[in-house]
Specification:
Layout lengths: L8 H134 L5 H15 L1
Length: about 160
């Protein structure tokens, strides 16, 4: 094996050193700068993404805060509208109730007048009916016809006694 031959050992070491330094130079001037560039670009992209994520998070928090504020204002406005509507409807109901009560009072007064007139008319005709009944009863009992004046006096006396 030629690698283990001691006579060729020093030139192999020289070529090893030449190759090592050549590869080292190529790697340090060409390979490592590219790797550093790729690492720097990746770090920059990651930093940019983190910055962008932080910015988007703050924007999302601002949007959420604005949404919650708008929601609170909408709820407050809805309660105000509900309260105003309830008050308006209660006022309208009270007004309608007052109208109905007023109309019922008018109808009650008119009905009381009609009842009083009917009572007066009934009492007025009651005397005449009582006189006719008295005359008819006297006719049947006695067989004689009594005059309306005597029958009226008897009915008036009986009405005074009753009340």
């Amino acid at each position: 094996m030629p690698q283990l031959d001691l006579a060729t050992f020093p030139p192999q070491l020289i070529w090893l050193l030449i190759t090592f330094f050549a590869l080292y130079a190529v790697m340090s001037w060409v390979g490592l700068p590219r790797v550093r560039g790729i690492l720097a670009a990746r770090k920059g992209r990651i930093d940019g993404d983190l910055e962008k994520a932080t910015q988007m998070k703050s924007e999302a928090e601002a949007v959420i805060a604005a949404y919650e504020k708008a929601l609170a204002e909408a709820r407050m406005q809805a309660q105000i509208t509900l309260r105003e509507t309830t008050d308006r409807l209660n006022a309208e109901a009270a007004q309608r109730q007052a109208k109905v009560a007023e109309e019922l009072a008018r109808e009650t007064t008119a009905a009381e007048k009609r009842i009083a007139e009917a009572k007066t008319q009934a009492l007025g005709s009651l005397r005449e009916v009582a006189i006719e009944v008295t005359r008819a009863a006297a006719q049947k009992l006695t067989g004689r016809d009594i005059d309306a004046q005597h029958a009226g006096a008897a009915v008036d006396q009986a009405m005074r006694e009753r009340g």
